[in-house]
Amino acid sequence: NKEVIPPENFSHVVGEIYRSSFPRQENFSFLHERLKLKSILVLIPEEYPQENLNFLKLTGIKLYQVGMSGNKEPFVNIPSHLLTKALEIVLNPANQPILIHSNRGKHRTGCLIGCIRKLQNWSLTMIFDEYRRFAFPKARALDQQFIEMYDDDEIKRIASKNNWLPLQW
What we know:
With 169 residues, this protein is of the alpha/beta class. It contains seven helices and five strands, in the order E-E-H-E-H-E-H-E-H-H-H-H. A five-stranded mixed β-sheet has the order 1-2-5-3-4, sandwiched between helices. Helix 3 (80-91) packs parallel to helix 7 (153-161). The two termini are 29 Å apart.
């Protein structure tokens, strides 16, 4: 029985939605054999490594890329429309089981997960607590502000039309 290793910062989010840091080769069997992923959503703008692309091709896992920069001061912010696009991919059951990741699985991933939690009607206190736990030791006030201010009307409209909400545990 061979050992399977989840990526760093790995966690179950809800239903068949998962989060982590950037998967490395030692994580591939976990993603394929244990999670039986259909899709991966990567939130970085850089080119995806060939080693990872080869793994996806071999296993038939679909790659979605919504490249966004992190919320870093003073002028770099995640555009709301990119987060809505990412949520549309994640919430679509046809793409699940799905893994969401950025480099470390902390800030960009944390913003996306925070917005999923808003759709689940979590309190901001609970959302920020989860965000800070994964972002430790450097939680960003701008990420938390983004989560709080994100206008989820558009994604709620899309999700309602497609019967994607409420998210099933």
